[in-house]
Amino acid sequence: MSSATSRPVSGRQARWQPHNDSRRERIVVSAIELLEQAPVGVEVPIMQIAEHAGLAKSVVYRQFAGRDELDRRIRREISDRFVADIEDALDIADGSIHSILVRTIGAVVTWIEDHPRLHEFLRTGPSEEGSEVDAMNALIATIAASTRALVTGLAGVVGVADDGSVDTMTFAIVSMTEATVTRWAGDPAPLLSREQLIEEVASYAWHVVDGVARRHGLTLDPEQQLVEIITQFAAPN
């Protein structure tokens, strides 16, 4: 199913494009707001989305070719919000390795706790047309790729060649974190508190990072500022 925005546009259509973009955004935001309030497993009707957006149902169908396209666009917006929150937390310029891990894992816990319905919706289908991968797995791959690029860049600074272990390491940490936090969030009586969970998962992630670093001849201090570690290894002997 092709997107309305992917078709060639005439001059008249181009003049209306900002207006149509605004309406699409309004529809998607309204759908997400309603989705947050809906019971688990309950689909929000297009009529309800249109009413919440202050638009006629026919306008929704003019902006999106059908329910599948609208749902893909909703999942893409949810994914973008999730990624933005995680990347804000994953700031290598601020903190030690341990504090960065705790902060980033804390952001994952907060997002899943605060948006359980959106998190669930990511598993209901893809965010891109033609994809067979659901939006949650695509999101995990996106965050892992972003983290991999960051770690690979740091490895290059300290003179360590990437032998492929960075790819495995980052995907393992990201997928482990999402799966563990999801299980915890869905448990009506979890054994660990929120703070205990974050510290526990951060310790797992640290052991993975430390193991990979040692195999490359690097000894890291989890409590040292990451910027200091990079400067130390990058300094000429």
TrEMBL record:
Residues 1-21 are annotated as: Disordered. InterPro entries: Homeodomain-like_sf (IPR009057), HTH-type_TetR-like_transc_reg (IPR050109), HTH_TetR (IPR001647), Tet_transcr_reg_TetR-rel_C_sf (IPR036271). Residues 21-82 form the HTH tetR-type domain. Residues 45-64 bind DNA. The keyword DNA-binding applies. Keywords: DNA-binding. This is TetR/AcrR family transcriptional regulator. It comes from Nocardia rhizosphaerae.
